[in-house]
């Protein structure tokens, strides 16, 4: 048991790791050999994962519940997988995907199948991210066509703005006094004053 480890990850501190932990305990992995991060899987800069990397040695076996627990960026997963299996010479077993068990497929064909599967997963994940972005843009465009405005709504001008604006234009008030009278920042007052002036000049 000394060379068997497990890695668990949940995306936020609110998410529960119970299902992953139970799966590792059923295999018989001691708790002190289970490394867990409560962090996004966007990259591999995670404290417990990095600690695990320093601990792993050639011939060790690493269990992970599912491939997305290793990470979300499949390009980086490919790079990390190759680093673990080819440079550190660690075996990996993905419990939810038995074909990704480097102990069972150590021959050339097995390695090829594993690499192809990882490439397929990478392609699917990349396309899904692209599709999500496209759906978001389509949704935003459709909402705008319906008249939905995005971003912080602009505060309406105070009722006294026009009076104060005229006083300022006729130099009976300073910009500071005018802004204070309208209850807004000086830069905001000047911004609105310039808009009104430009509209009047058109």
What is the compact description of this entry?
With 202 residues, this protein is α/β, with parallel strands linked by helices. It has helices at 18-27, 47-55, 67-70, 74-87, 108-145, 161-169, 175-182, 186-201, and strands spanning 4-10, 34-38, 61-64, 91-94.
Describe the protein.
- The structure is a single chain.
- The protein is of the alpha/beta class and 202 residues long.
- It folds into two domains: 4-125, 3-Layer(aba) Sandwich (Rossmann fold); 161-201.
- The chain has eight helices and four strands.
- It has helices at residues 18-27, 47-55, 67-70, 74-87, 108-145, 161-169, 175-182, 186-201; strands at residues 4-10, 34-38, 61-64, 91-94.
- The chain has a four-stranded parallel sheet, with helices on both faces.
- Helix 1 links the parallel strand 1 (4-10) and strand 2 (34-38).
Keywords summarizing the entry:
four-stranded parallel sheet, 202 residues, 53% helix, alpha/beta, 4 strands, single chain, 2 domains, Rossmann fold
